[in-house]
Amino acid sequence: MAETWQLVIFWLLAVIIIGSAVRVVTTGNLVHAALYLVGTLMGAAALYLLLLAEFVAWVQVLVYVGAIVVLMLFGLMLTRAPIGKGDFDNNQRPLAGVVALAVFVVSSAILVDAFEGKEINLSTAADPSVEALGEAIFSTYVLPFEVVSVLLLAALVGAIVLARKD
Fold first, then answer.
1. Is there a domain that residue 113 lies in?
2. Cα gap 117→114, rounded to integer Å
3. Residues 6 and 57 occupy one common structural domain
4. Confidence at 82, pLDDT banded by 50, 70, 90
5. What is the mean pLDDT of residues 116-140?
6. Which segments of 29-165 does DSSP mark as H helices, in order?
7. Within this chain, do residues 1 and 64 fall inside the same structural domain, yes or no?
8. Region for 19 from its dihedrals, namely left if φ exceeds 0, alpha if ψ lies in -120 to 50, beta otherwise
9. In Å, how far from its chain's centre is CA 121?
């Protein structure tokens, strides 16, 4: 019975995430797009909670919802971008749709090939402590962690350059 409720909650969250993600890219208002992005990221955090990864869920909320979306909104305000309804459409919609479909098909094929027939058993999961997570990040995954750090620093410098008045 518990698995049924988990599936119901998962599919409900999946519909919410997909719906808000579609609205992020289809809305004409940039502030509304940022708010739909908040919905998408909060849905991802709820999925982490469903997987019993509370620490990762809170990091998702604090870092992505709390910091990244606020940074985007500040960037919109500082650059004086058109915030209201705007005409952001161009003639590349069909190409974007084909590329998005191709990415979806390739990603799905890779995930199905890698995890077909496997089940997640949360009772025998690895050590869920923050100490074990920190040990994994700063030993096994230190290179990807540093690459993400440099990427975020480059995004911050780019935002400052764009916001400067010359």
1. no
2. 9
3. yes
4. low
5. 72
6. 30-50, 54-59, 69-78, 93-115, 130-135, 142-163
7. yes
8. alpha
9. 24
| Residue 162 and residue 75 in contact, taking contact as beta carbons nearer than 8 Å | yes
In a domain, 90, yes or no: no
Q: How many domains does the chain have?
A: 2
Q: What is the CATH number of the domain that holds 62?
A: 1.20.120.1200
Residue carrying the six token digits 């908040």: 38
pTM of the model: 0.64
Burial group, residue 27, by CB count within 10 angstroms (0-12, 13-18, 19+): middle
Q: Of the ranges 60-69, 100-109, 122-131, which is most confident? A: 100-109
Do residues 67 and 133 both lie within one domain?
A: no
* DSSP string across 69-106: HHHHHHHHHHTT---SS-----TTHHHHHHHHHHHHHH
Is there a domain that residue 114 lies in?
no
Query: Is there a domain that residue 147 lies in?
Result: yes
Decide if 55 contacts 130 (C-beta within 8 A): yes
Which residues lie below 8 Å from residue 112, measured CB to CB, with a gap of 6+? Answer: none
The one-letter code for the residue type at 90 is N
- For residue 65, give its domain range: 1-85
| Contact call for residues 163 and 78 (beta carbons, < 8 A) | yes
Question: What integer best gives the mean pLDDT of the chain?
Answer: 82
